[in-house]
Amino acid sequence: MAQADIDALARPLTLPCGVVLKNRLAKAPMTESLADARTNHPNERVNHVYRRWAKGGLGLIVTGNIAIDRANMEAARNIAIEKQDEKYMAFYKEYAKAAKADGCVAVVQLSHAGRQTPRAVNTRPKAPSNVKLSMDGVPQFILSNPVAMTTADVHDVRDRFISASVFCQKAGFDGVQIHAAHGYLISQFLNPGVNVGRTDGYGGSLENRMRLLKEVVEGVREACGPRFVVSVKLNSSDFQKSGATEQDSIRVLEMLEASTCDFVEVSGGSYEAPAMVGIVRRESTRKREAYFLDFAAEARKTVKRMPLMITGGFRTRSAMADAIRAGEADIIGMARPLCLHPEFSTVLLSDPSPTLAFPVPKIDWHHLRATNPNVGNVESFWHTGQIQRMADGMDPDEEGKVVKPEFFAQVWAPRQMLWEPATTFPTNVVWALVWPVKPLHHLLQWFTVAAAVAGAGVFIASRVN
After folding, report:
1. Which neighbouring-strand residues pair with 111?
2. Is-contact 259 214, C-beta < 8 A?
3. List of E strands, 199-355
4. Has residue 235 been placed in a domain?
5. CA distance 450 to 258
6. How many independent structural domains does the chain possess?
7. Cα(421)–Cα(427) distance, rounded to whole angstroms?
8. Is 87 exposed, middle or buried (0-12, 13-18, 19+ CB in 10 A)?
9. Residue limits of the NADH:flavin oxidoreductase/NADH oxidase N-terminal domain (predicted)?
């Protein structure tokens, strides 16, 4: 049976645009915080990680989220592409070359964080409305206060997605993925609990709420041509009472299929309801390996031609192969396993063992839940730390021995939301110098905690005055 599973995953896939994936295994997008802290452009650290992933046997790479607006990024050290960035094209060509090594298809995920933009990046990010983010275990004063977008703002965002796609095509990437999931800006437009009070053509009915996504996808297709991969990351559900439902998402999928979208990566949740990291309530979802296969099976009743990529929760090769054979998934997305073993795709396609085990960190995350209710995001930060290690030429620390997970709970997460050392001189230089040096982690931890506490004190004092 192992060989049959290998054969199912090794089978090539031709996307609607004609681009061929050499197999069904994909690297799903993750936050990386690898960009140059001064310019938010890629560098050799980025190239090193992507070259390693591409040579690890993947058929498809979807990059970590790349912002279309530096003022509305998910993290201060992420990559951002803006209209005036043509002079940095050489950096992106090297990035594309690294991600396409060994015949891998490389697709750039483009995003706008909207109200999920951290305060360290922008205290007043743009969003469909002024409904503020709410996260368990995170004080409200740490989160940004969103500003409702005008219709002109919406059109500007649409045009930025399109121009960034053209930029990526010139750099040599095979396509783009429009991030419309996980509570990012386009997902916020789709969510009736966040997209409130709008009276223009982008609020109210589902047809209006999905208008921005439709205009972006069709605009990218028109600008980049029929052979360029245009994909979307979409929530199966927002997993919130006031959010977009599964039936809403199926209607969006129908629209995307009609708009000649090449594939949709199915995910779910947001910062407020993090289903994408496995925090789900439905019993049927818990019983199955992948978090969103139930939705995919339902969507297949109406979405027949457009390929679906399912990411999240796969832990055995047999489950992945079963999903392919059943037609529930056409592409299998992997994220965290590739943070621990970047060459794991090669193992999946060659190891004859019928009990092949997926890499999981040897860390007791349940213990951490007792001290940090937002442990789902702590896990994300810890896995980002493993990407950082690979960027510096090291292997992942799968047992958490070099840097304890508590570091990411107590230091990385707070500095990401409150005080980002990468953004200003001289702290960006200190962070860049200290991070790769293992013995200095504890010193940096206390330095960062002290600075974060001091920053919080100054902020609170200013509010009181």
Report:
1. 67
2. yes
3. 229-235, 263-267, 308-311, 331-334
4. yes
5. 53
6. 1
7. 5
8. exposed
9. 11-345
* Backbone torsions φ then ψ of 264, nearest 5 degrees: -120, 130
- Supply the CATH number for residue 253's domain: 3.20.20.70
pLDDT of residue 120: 73
Integer angstrom CA distances of residue 238 from 58, 61, 106, 121, 210: 29, 25, 27, 25, 14
Measure the CA dihedral 156/158/162/168, to 10°.
Answer: 90
Lowest mean pLDDT among 11-20, 57-66, 280-289, 338-347: 280-289
Instruction: List the domain range (segments joined by +) for residue 287.
Output: 2-360
Cis peptide before 359 (omega within 30 of 0): no
State the Cα–Cα distance between residues 291 and 310, nearest whole angstrom.
9
DSSP state of 357: P
Residue by residue, DSSP assigns 134-191 as --TT--GGGS---EEPPHHHHHHHHHHHHHHHHHHHHHT-SEEEEEE-BT-HHHHHH-
CA distance 195 to 306: 27
Band (pLDDT 50/70/90 cuts) for residue 287 is very low
Phi, psi of 89 (to 5 degrees): -55, -35
Q: Lowest-pLDDT range, 139-143, 195-199, 454-458?
A: 454-458
Structure tokens of 16? 């609607």
Position 394 in a domain:
no
Helices (H), 172-245: 185-190, 206-209, 211-224
Report pTM: 0.85
Residue 75 lies in a domain: yes
Assess if residue 184 is contained within a domain.
yes
Whole-number average pLDDT of the chain:
83
